[in-house]
Write a structure and sequence with these properties.
Blueprint: E1 7-9, E2 39-43, E3 45-50, E4 53-58, E5 66-70, E6 75-76, E7 83-89, E8 96-104, E9 107-114, E10 119-126, E11 129-137, E12 144-150, E13 153-159, E14 164-171, E15 179-188, E16 198-204
């Protein structure tokens, strides 16, 4: 299903107040240990902080590559506290993925970019079972990606300004989680000779 992609104002009913336990990083401070507020996992992929971005650079020609920057403490999953990433550059080669993840135990909801389709998607994953609930045209200006709760559904959205959001899809098929572990990752499912460099401007639970 491809969304109609009409934008709506942010529907959060109360102002978003940052939680101490929640990830909030604008990557403005160069550091030898990116994502030190949580955990950085790397396999044939190097993550650094450069010019206000978290830069994830996979090793050329390697397969099953990943960089994952994520929280280690569970946070409440509500309409206010979802998970948000400011995505400046995505993985654009076939076989690569860039995804924003809301992980809840053995299942996860993800907003990502599908290079083969040149589309954004919203999906649910549990084990080997994957269900996609919507697609939206890829727009490089829509740098804000979000996964959050909307009443009884988990939804994926994108925005160019962090105020007006375009819904990609909604999962009404299962009870939403109460707590999540948010993360952002880039990975490859096959060797890529010239892999993309992925850049993340910020990682947060509150809109900009």
């Amino acid at each position: 299903m491809v969304c109609g992609c009409s934008s709506t104002p942010d529907v959060d009913s109360t102002p978003c107040v940052q939680l101490e336990s929640a990830p909030h990083d604008d990557f403005e401070q160069p550091t030898a240990s990116p994502c030190s507020w949580g955990q950085l996992s790397q396999l044939d992929c190097t993550a650094t902080v450069e010019n206000g971005d978290l830069v994830m650079a996979p090793k050329p020609g390697a397969g099953d590559v990943f960089c994952v920057c994520g929280a280690t403490q569970l946070i409440p999953f509500t309409s206010t506290f979802g998970t948000i990433a400011e995505v400046h550059d995505v993985a654009t080669e076939v076989g690569e993925d860039s995804v924003l993840v809301a992980l809840a135990s053995v299942e996860a909801w993800r907003v990502g970019y599908d290079a083969a389709m040149d589309m954004l998607f919203f999906e649910h994953i549990m084990g080997d079972e994957r269900t996609r609930f919507g697609y939206a045209p890829w727009d490089p200006a829509a740098v804000w990606w979000r996964v959050r709760l909307d009443e009884d559904a988990v939804i994926g959205e994108v925005s160019a300004d962090g105020e007006r959001w375009v819904r990609i899809g909604a999962d009404h098929t299962r009870p939403p989680p109460e707590m999540i572990l948010p993360s952002f990752m880039t990975l490859t499912s096959q060797p890529v000779a010239a892999p993309s460099t992925v850049r993340i401007g910020s990682f947060n639970v509150c809109p900009p």
